[in-house]
Amino acid sequence: EQRNPWCCLAWTLVIGTMNSLVFLINLLLMFVIFTIVLLPTIVVVYFGFQCHSQVLHSSARYCKSILDDNSSSALIILGFVIMSPLIVVAMATYCSLARRLRLFMCFQPYSLAVYKGGRWCPYEGGGPCGCARGWNTQVKAWV
């Protein structure tokens, strides 16, 4: 049976807030993983741009004694070359961790706000999101 309009609005806000929180947790987790995995690329490209005379031309000691324009260009190219495989590693790490934590199962449909008696979880069990415990390991996200 359908909920009355005020109850529907309240449940919509609760479910929207919960889905937004889960989205922010996913976004934060992705940001942390990508930052950690891509740190070598960030450092190499930063030093390449910092010491190149046509870009920033820093007066730091290591720029004058170790890195000239050719080596700075090599660092920039190396940084962009190693970026592609590191992005793949970061994405695989994020997807593996999100699947292990079952973060995608925490999103709730808005039909729970419209109709009474809806279940918080399409699967049996409970857990931190209402879906994690008792989850069948054979169930795939794309099924």
List the helices and strands and how they pair.
Blueprint: H1 5-37, H2 39-51, H3 61-65, H4 69-101, H5 111-114
Helix pairs in contact: 1-4, 2-4
Keywords: Membrane, Transmembrane, Transmembrane helix
Family: Belongs to the TMEM88 family.
GO cellular component, one term: plasma membrane
Brief write-up:
The chain is an all-alpha fold.
Keywords:
membrane, 143 residues, TMM88 protein, transmembrane helix, elongated, mainly alpha, 5 helices, transmembrane, PDZ domain binding
Helix content: 55-70%
SSE series:
HHHHH
- Outline type: elongated
Number of strands: 0
Count the helices. How many?
A: 5
Radius of gyration: 24 Å
The main sheet comes to: none
Approximate strand percentage = under 5%
**Structural class, from helix and strand content?**
mainly alpha
Mean pLDDT: 80
Unreliable residue runs: 130-135
Subcellular location: Membrane
GO cellular component, one term: plasma membrane
Family: Belongs to the TMEM88 family.
InterPro entries: TMEM88
Overall description:
The protein has one domain (5-112). α1 crosses α4 (69-101) and α2 packs antiparallel against α4 (69-101). The chain is mainly alpha-helical and 143 residues long. The protein has helices at 5-37, 39-51, 61-65, 69-101, 111-114. The chain is 62% helix and 0% strand.
